[in-house]
Amino acid sequence: MHIHGRAHRTIWLNADGWSVEVIEQTLLPHRFETVTLKTAEAAAGAIKTMQVRGAPLIGVTAAYGVALAMRADSSGAALARTIAYLASQRPTAVNLRWALEEMRKVLAPLPPADREKAAYAKAAAICDDEVETCRMIGVHGLPIIEALAAKKRPGEPVNILTHCNAGWLACVDWGTATSPIYQAHDRGVALHVWVDETRPRNQGASLTAYELGAHGVPHTIIVDNAGGHLMQHGKVDMCIVGTDRVTSNGDVCNKIGTYLKALAAFDNGVPFYVALPGSTVDWELDDGMKIEIEERSGDEVLKMAGRLPDGRVEVVEIAAPGSKAGNPAFDVTPARLVTGLVTERGVCKASTDGLRGVFRRLG
Ligand code: MRU
Question: Looking at residue 361, what is its pLDDT?
Fold first, then answer.
């Protein structure tokens, strides 16, 4: 997608042929900077501190982290150690484990001397596949938006609500939830996006609004609690969100607050879609309640960063000194609240049969 008129991915290999560049997402939307990753430790740190975040992107970053590790030590022990280390950085998004498993499958059988080259090739393949996968999610999601647009008066926009950032910043390009939105917008479908701010880290206000704005998509940031009210007043035609893990029965784990939006959508008859690549399906779990939910620092709740009039970005405290904060980062939306899963292979029901149907896998 485009930033300041230039096409960007969120992660790429530098001209030196080995170091990896990523967009520093903790600085957005105030500053656009990149970070160079030269070691597996740096890749792990970028994942942990959320310089890179979003399920697909942390998977790709981890894949490149393995390639960086293989430059230093390509022994079997180093491979196993690096994979375990990278996997431990964030527990909820299954794409991280998936990408590392893909790396292991390719690298483990090879002689150590061949591993570095093969690791870079596999990481690049995972990265490129991610782009095509997200493009296809958009191809399959587009008719949903077009069908809603067909019921509107000429020029009247389709109103779409999204939560967190499941845009190209969370992936490599296109995004998952945003891919149908970008493709509809590019085809001239009138649409408008309600962007949940997504406390505590504000991925909606800081990232989704930033990238929609950069692409020229009309949008409005709302507080997380506004969605239900807007739905009651007929101001939301559909919801579409991303996900960090979908269990084999169709339960959806996504950024904290997603469940409340799904409940409100269900109560108001608003279709609630979830966009995901196949790498987000956890075939080993058949119940979303079994997913490990990342608990993050209470500081994310008690403090907020913002830009001052002079351009400086400062962190301020928003609660009385001494108050404690809990910070579960994700929640689970039961499959029964989900209208459909939008995947690179097509749209399916959020159910075991639905997922098996599109992914042709026996689970
Ligand atoms: O904590 P984050 O910012 O990594 O959480 C991201 C989300 O919850 C996204 O909605 C999800 O990863 C899907 S990204 C296509």
Answer: 60
